[in-house]
Every structure is written in structure tokens, then in C-alpha cells.
Design brief:
Elements lengths: L2 E6 L3 H6 L13 H8 L6 E6 L6 H12 L3 E5 L5 H14 L4 E5 L1 H5 L1 H5 L6 E3 L6 H6 L10 E4 L6 E3 L37 E4 L2 E2 L18 E2 L2 H14 L3 E4 L8 H13 L6 E7 L6 H9 L2 E9 L3 H6 L6 H14 L2 E8 L6 H13 L4 E6 L7 H8 L28 H16 L2 H14 L2 H10 L3
Parallel strand pairs: 1-2, 1-3, 3-4, 4-5, 8-11, 11-12, 12-13, 13-14, 14-15
Antiparallel strand pairs: 5-6, 6-7, 9-10
């Protein structure tokens, strides 16, 4: 029987713990790997090694391979962890040359030509790869499997197969293989959770909007959903697996707001009691007060909003297709329903100026937000922003490890209107001005007393870098 080892590349330290937002660093078992493994666990031996949970990465990988003897080692790769993933797979190929190595994920999908040059990767999975591994393990010739880039072991010739079609029906997906994870080891802060462990759920794929800083290469712009009953079945399954809280990881949960409301109604109908969050964010133009009141009854305690900027001209430039009146209405609706609101803002967007960044800070301060996070706009490969900057020769670094939305110390690109030091200045100003306001501190103090979070927030404040 074939054995498959999934690796979750280490990212928590570099992407969160070494940055300005370390106090809120998330800790989740990897949904992508749980989803991929679900197609395999009935017919093969499968193991997941989460390298965010180990002290010595190389030692953990080597010892796990020595004891498990996998035939395949696979990983899903995001842009900032591509360099460390590459080094890990080089070590695997050097020490265990007979193992077949497979990588996929958003970065591989965006940059297959780059990854194909690395001999440590035998097969690249490009696009939506849920069923790629079962096809490979079935013995089907690689050239007949869509969505692959692979190297001939004898000649070194690289073959690219046709684009892989997207799954037509998400309801047919098996439940993620959460049994492969040691769930009690995952702990989120009180900034983003009420109870631990927290698990991600995917109820839809795709987003019909096309913001220029967002990649649509993997899941596309065609909105596909799981039925409300299937969604809540999966939530019940997660609770039985040991999760105490659930976070919805969709790009656009409320794009079909009638379906979103049906999910809430189904949770209420079944009498399920658990906290859940829309931490990944929803669009401000796709919610209403009825939804928040219903979701609150169903257990929603926090909602993220992709607000991005306080400047209408920049909103148009990035193709957000939402306006500031909708921002204010959405955040106010959440507040009225008693749902904590988390505002996501981005600095350094296309068309940005110092004046627009100032407007963003002032907007954030004017809204009744529970929390705000300010990120640098990273031109990730696969986005139109990257293509625009690259066409003008403005990308200054292709060291993908530096492509982290929470770091502003290493210049990544030349913005047409801004110096890197100006972006850095406004990034730090935004956090200080939002969180150090007397009005916010008093509001947060009252909230903390009501929710029992005072000691947590004092600790987070003292650990923060202002």
C-alpha cells in the first residue's frame, strides 16, 4: 500500500511571530492538507507533518521519513514559504532520492516555470488539485492527467499537461481528514477566537469580484457553493472531531446572501451551540442587518470586513466595486447586531498617495470597529498588481520569503507615487493612531470587562511593538 506524507511548510514564525502583528498570530491545522488527504485515507496510508509545530525542521522531516517510509512527499505552497519549501525538498531529494515529490498551491500555480526548473520537485500540480493525487496513485500516465508539470527522470524533459477543469460540485467532496492532526496543539489568541482549538471550514470557492491585488488563478471567479445542509453537516463533524470554534475561510461567504442566511438558519434549527467567525472577511456590499442578527443568533461573534482603503479613487483603481457608504453601513450593521467587527486595511495599493493613506487611517478611526489590521499591499505573483508593476520594471525583489504583508523593512517594489519609507511611516502610524486613542481604549476596556478579556488584552498590549 502506498504511503503519502504531507508537509505543512513552516510559516508562523516568519509570517507572523517576527512581525508587528505577532500577538495575533493564528494557529490552525491546515485545511488544504486535510482536504487533500480526505481523498486518500480510505485507500492509502497518510500522514501529515506540520512543521510549524516542530523545533528542528530538518530533523523532524528526516526522522518522520525514516519511520514512515513514504512513497510520496507532497506540500501546498504559498508565496512567502516557497524558499523554505524548496530547501526542505532539496534535502529530501538528496537523502531520499527514490521518493516522489509533489508540490502544488497558489505559488506553484502562479509560477510553474520557476518551480519546474528545480530538480527536487518531480511533479507540480497547477490549479485546483483536489483529485490529482488519487489519479497519480491509480497508475494513470502522467501525461493523461490534467493540470500537471513534470520532469522525465531519464531525459529531464519537462511536460505540461492541459489546464485542469475546476470541480463542478463541491458537495461531493469528502469531509476533511482532521483525524490526521493533533488538534489540542493549535491555540489562537483571544484576539481571534473565543475557544480553542479553532478549525477552518470552506463552504464555497471562487469570488466573482476581481480586485487587482487578489489572485484568482486557483479557484477562479465562478462562485461554487456547498449546500447549507452539507455545510452544517461538516460543522457538526468538526465539532465531533474536537474543534470548539469554527472559522469560515471562504473568499466570499455572503456572495449569495440567501444561502448564507440558510446556513445560519440550519445551525439554529439543529440547536448547535458553538462560536464561529468570518475571520477571512466579507464584502461590505454583500451584507445587511438581517444577516448579522440571524448570524449572531447562530453563534457568529466576529466578522472581518475587506475595507482596504478610505479613498474612493483608490477603491476604483483597485476595482473593489464597493464604496465608503457601504463600508459604514456594513460595520454599523454588525455593531447593532452585537457582532465584533475586524477591519482589514491595505497600504501601498495601486493609485495610493500619502493623502489616501491618511484617509485610510481616519476612516478606520471613525468606524465602530472592534479590531483593525493594516497590511502592506504585496504584489503577489498571479495578481494583476504584480503584472502591472512587473511591466513597468518596478518589482525590486523576487526573494519570495520577503513577500509578507506584515513586513515593511525590505523594499519589494517601487510604488509610482510613494517612497518605501513613506509606506513604512504610515503603516506604523496606522496602528498607533487606531489603538492608542483614549476613546478606543475606553471602548475596549468596557468590552473586555463584559467578555472577560481584560487580562488578555493587557498582555497583548504589553507585547505589541508600537
Amino acid at each position: 500500500m502506498s504511503r503519502i506524507l504531507f508537509l505543512n511548510p513552516p510559516s508562523r514564525q516568519s509570517v507572523y511571530l517576527a512581525t508587528n502583528v505577532r500577538v495575533g498570530a493564528p494557529s490552525y491545522p491546515n485545511l488544504t492538507l486535510a482536504t487533500l488527504a480526505a481523498h486518500l485515507v480510505r485507500n492509502y496510508e497518510v500522514k501529515v507533518l506540520d512543521l510549524d509545530l516542530v523545533q528542528n525542521v530538518e530533523e523532524a522531516v528526516t526522522s518522520t521519513i525514516d519511520s514512515f517510509h513514504p512513497d510520496i512527499v507532497a506540500a501546498s505552497v504559498k508565496t512567502p514559504v516557497y524558499p523554505v519549501t524548496l530547501e526542505i525538498f532539496k534535502t529530501i531529494k538528496t537523502n531520499f532520492p527514490s521518493i516522489t515529490t509533489i508540490v502544488g498551491g497558489v505559488h506553484i500555480t502562479a509560477c510553474p516555470e520557476e518551480a519546474a526548473q528545480e530538480s527536487c520537485f518531480d511533479i507540480l500540480a497547477v490549479g485546483e488539485g483536489d483529485t490529482v493525487l488519487p489519479e497519480i496513485l491509480s497508475g494513470k500516465p502522467l501525461e493523461e492527467i490534467a493540470g500537471l508539470v513534470f520532469r522525465d527522470k531519464l531525459t529531464g524533459q519537462i511536460t505540461t499537461t492541459p489546464k485542469r477543469p475546476m470541480l463542478p460540485d463541491l458537495n461531493e467532496l469528502p469531509f476533511p481528514a482532521w483525524q490526521l492532526f493533533d488538534l489540542p496543539r493549535y491555540k489562537n489568541s483571544r484576539l481571534s477566537s473565543r475557544q480553542n482549538p479553532v478549525g477552518h471550514i470552506e463552504t464555497s470557492r471562487g469570488c466573482s469580484y476581481s480586485c487587482n491585488f487578489c489572485s484568482k488563478l486557483t479557484f477562479g471567479t465562478f462562485y461554487r457553493v456547498k449546500r447549507p445542509q452539507r455545510v452544517v453537516d461538516e460543522m457538526e463533524y468538526m465539532l465531533k472531531c474536537g474543534f470548539k470554534e469554527i472559522h469560515i475561510a471562504d473568499d466570499s461567504f455572503t456572495q449569495d446572501i440567501a444561502r448564507a442566511k440558510e446556513v445560519c438558519e440550519e445551525i439554529i434549527r439543529r440547536g448547535l451551540k458553538f462560536p464561529w467567525s468570518l475571520i477571512n472577511g466579507v464584502r461590505v456590499n454583500l451584507v445587511d442587518e438581517e444577516f448579522f442578527r440571524l448570524a449572531k443568533r447562530a453563534g457568529l461573534w466576529q466578522v472581518g470586513f475587506g475595507i482596504e482603503t478610505g479613498d474612493e479613487t483608490v477603491l476604483e483603481r483597485i476595482n473593489k466595486r464597493a464604496d465608503l457608504d457601504q463600508v459604514r453601513q456594513a460595520v454599523t450593521a454588525a455593531e447593532k447586531a452585537g457582532v465584533d467587527s475586524f477591519g482589514f486595511f491595505i497600504l501601498g495599493l495601486a493609485g495610493e498617495t500619502e493623502q489616501s493613506m491618511e484617509k485610510t487611517i481616519q476612516l478606520a478611526k471613525s468606524l465602530p470597529l472592534s479590531t483593525a489590521k493594516f497590511d502592506l499591499c504585496i504584489p503577489y505573483p498571479g495578481t494583476r498588481y504584480f503584472e502591472e508593476l512587473a511591466a513597468e520594471n518596478r518589482i525590486r525583489s523576487r526573494n519570495w520569503a520577503d513577500f509578507v504583508v506584515h513586513q515593511v523593512d525590505k523594499p519589494l517594489f517601487d510604488h509610482p507615487n510613494l517612497t518605501w519609507s513613506a509606506i513604512n511611516k504610515y503603516y506604523h502610524r496606522a496602528f498607533r493612531e487606531f489603538y492608542l486613542r483614549p476613546s478606543y481604549i475606553l471602548h475596549r476596556l468596557w468590552r473586555d470587562i463584559r467578555n472577560g478579556d481584560l487580562l488578555y488584552d493587557v498582555a497583548y498590549f504589553l507585547k505589541s511593538k508600537w
